Amino acid sequence: MTDTHAQVRLCLIRHAQSEANLTKQTLCGQNISCVLTPLGHEQSVLLGKRLKYQNASFDYVLCSTATRAKQTAEIVLKIMDIDFSKVILSSAFLEQSQGNWEGVSRFLCYTSDVMKQMNELHFEFIPPEGESLRMVQKRAIDFLEPYIEQAKQRSLDEKREITIVIFTHANFIRAVLQYYTQSNPRYAWIIGQANTAITEILFYQHGISLVKVNDSAHLLFPIPETSKQS
Fold first, then answer.
1. How many beta carbons lie within 10 A of that of residue 210, not counting itself?
2. Are the beta carbons of 27 and 104 closer than 8 angstroms?
3. Containing H/E element for 200?
4. 134-152: buried (b, 16+ CB within 10 Å) or exposed (e) per residue?
5. pLDDT at 2
6. Cα 154 to Cα 191: distance, rounded to the nearest angstrom
7. What distance in Å separates the CA atoms of residue 171 and residue 177, rounded to the nearest whole number?
8. How far apart are CA 92 and CA 61, in angstroms?
9. CB–CB of 172/95 below 8 Å?
């Protein structure tokens, strides 16, 4: 980066596998108390090892208040030697609320009439007493934008790239991606988000760059214990 242009990296990380991920026939939604599975713990360790191996550093660490996101962050940050007490927790980073549908079978919720509405409304569809992706997007951006602006100023002052990481959820990530890329909201649903996947957006002098989406390579090619340390 140059001395006259700010550069901020936004890193969005989906939580590791949770117990709700094992019951795909049931709508999870926010389900704040849901915990990680044993596999989820292993996935978090692999992510932490990857980030440590890459000498990743975070200037701001933000996290959903859902247990599965906090557990993921705790495991990753411990491996990276980052104090969890520095994490900023907020309900603004929670998953999309499915309202009255949370904990209910998808087959009961997704009737033919509901599917027709979802296909027509897409980003604007609201589950009963729940949230649309647009509503998730608004609460996300309202909370996040001040941090991005603060990070841009800090980047100019310190003449270096500033990194913000958020441990969060799949639909939250989809909503944020749609906002910054201004992509067709119709296709937001099809953006894959694996457990512990990394998505990165770079804010720089020419606008934004979508650096990576749904990167879960650490689950396929884990860093060996004997890797050279920096």
1. 13
2. yes
3. strand 198-204
4. bbbbebbeebbeebbeebb
5. 54
6. 31
7. 10
8. 14
9. yes
Residue showing tokens 């599975």: 37
Which of 188, 197, 190, 192 shows the shortest CA–CA distance to 216? 197
Question: Are the C-beta atoms of residues 171 and 66 closer than 8 Å to each other?
Answer: no
Structure tokens at 130: 């729940």
Instruction: Tell me the two tokens of residue 141.
Output: 């951006």
Per-residue tokens: 109 = 């919720």
Measured CA to CA in angstroms, residue 82 lies from 57, 58, 73 at distances of 9, 9, 10
By C-alpha distance, which of 175, 70, 200 is closest to 125? 175
d(CA 127, CA 114): 9
Tell me the pLDDT tens digit for each residue of 155-187.
Answer: 999 999 999 999 999 999 999 999 999 999 988
Q: Where do runs of H (alpha helix) occur along the chain?
A: 38-53, 67-79, 106-109, 112-121, 133-158, 170-181, 217-220
In 159-202, which ranges are continuous DSSP H helix? 170-181
First to last CA, the chain: 23
| Percent share of the chain, pLDDT over 90 | 82
Assign residue 196 a region (left: φ > 0; alpha: ψ between -120 and 50; beta: otherwise): left
Query: Which sign, positive or negative, has the C-alpha torsion 83, 197, 24, 141?
Result: positive
> What phi and psi values does residue 227 have, to the nearest 5 degrees?
-60, 145
